[in-house]
From TrEMBL:
This is Nicotinate-nucleotide--dimethylbenzimidazole phosphoribosyltransferase. Keywords: Cobalamin biosynthesis, Glycosyltransferase, Transferase. It comes from the Bacteria. It comes from Pelotomaculum schinkii. GO terms for biological process: cobalamin biosynthetic process.
């Protein structure tokens, strides 16, 4: 399934993009005056093949997994918080529960690799294994397990698309997951552990030192090959990161835009990009996280974030907020009048354009 999905990912529809740009330039406004909204509208046209795309349904897909590297003291929160937060998500009271509801998006929470059994109503059960191994001492998972987790993400994404969603957002849950995300950044970008590592959630100086040390040892022990995305993912990644990379690939294969959230989901985007560079064209970077390495990741992907709100919660919260802006871009295309449609004379048009 993974390799078939990768092969299905094509180029953007340039003709639809040209038609969309022509439409934008005909609207009753100075050219380019709606800035990034116009860029999004043209990108959506290329993704969907429609000059006037419409958002018909929205889904936020949160992948959850645990990490053996927590044994190294890289997080101030215990592993139990992963399941506790999943409960809050499906109950609608976590940050992503509130913001997905605000965006009128379906929230899908998936157990792809939580350490303990999860018997929560509303959680999709797709566990590949019970947490990853400790990357500071060995690989996170086998190559086959990485493929399985990727395919979970593909299947969940395409199930949501089949159910009517044509705009997806990615979110994450997993205590300690900024550590493997930093390791992925270091591996793909050639950065040192210090350059790639941020504080994550409420990390003090002592824990920060442990985190940098664990990442440095993970890179030295596992020697992930930056030319082999599956090798990097299996050796220093996470199950939820793999699942999210699968969501991105699955969306791209079905010509569906997918919003990237913060540091962890962008690590997944890097994996997806390395597996299939064309997948980047289907990604929209929602925001710039406060996490140190997020800008470095976005630079590697050559993506520009839509909003800057100093957010660093994760969960998909930034991506959920950006859904309304993506939908606004489609409404500009469909509902705003052209000069001809509005009956604006050529003289008035000249004045506006000046």
């Amino acid at each position: 399934m993974l390799y078939q999905t990768i092969k299905q990912i094509g180029e953007l529809d340039r003709k639809a993009m040209e038609e969309a740009q022509k439409r934008l330039d005909s609207l009753i406004k100075p050219p380019g005056s709606l800035g990034v909204l116009e860029e999004i509208a043209v990108r959506l046209a290329g993704i969907t093949g429609k000059a006037k795309p419409r958002v018909q349904g929205k889904s936020v897909i949160v992948m959850a997994g645990d990490h053996g590297v927590v044994d190294e003291g890289v997080s101030v929160a215990p592993r139990e918080v992963t399941v506790q937060m999943m409960q809050a998500m499906v109950n609608g009271v976590a940050g992503i529960g509130v913001l997905a509801r605000h965006a009128a998006a379906r929230l899908v929470v998936v157990d792809v690799g939580v350490l303990t059994p999860v018997a929560l109503q509303g959680v999709v059960q797709r566990k590949v294994r019970a947490g990853t191994g400790n990357i500071a001492a060995g690989p996170a998972m086998s190559r086959d397990e990485a493929v399985q987790a990727l395919e979970v993400g593909i299947e969940v994404a395409q199930s949501e698309i089949d159910a009517g969603s044509n705009l997806l957002a990615t979110g994450d849950m997993g205590i300690g997951n900024t550590t493997p995300s930093s390791a992925i950044l270091a591996a793909f970008g050639g950065y040192t552990a210090e350059e790639a590592t941020g504080r994550g959630t409420m990390v003090n100086d002592e824990v920060m030192k442990l985190k940098i040390s664990a990442i440095a040892r993970a890179l030295a022990k596992n020697r992930p090959d930056p030319e082999d995305a599956l090798d990097v993912l299996a050796k220093v990644g996470g199950l939820e990161i793999a699942g999210l990379a699968g969501v991105i690939l699955g969306a791209a294969a079905r010509r569906t835009p997918v919003l990237i959230d913060g540091f962890i989901t962008t690590a997944a985007a890097l994996v997806a990009f390395k597996l299939q560079p064309k997948s980047r064209q289907y990604m929209i970077a929602s925001h710039l996280s406060g996490e140190q390495g997020h800008r470095l990741m976005l630079d590697l992907l050559d993506l520009r974030p839509v909003i800057h709100l100093q957010m660093r919660l994760g969960e998909g919260t930034g991506a959920a907020l950006t859904m309304s802006l993506v939908e606004a871009a489609t409404k500009i295309m469909r509902e705003m009048a052209s000069f001809d449609e509005a009956g604006v004379s050529d003289l008035e048009e000249d004045k506006i354009l000046k």
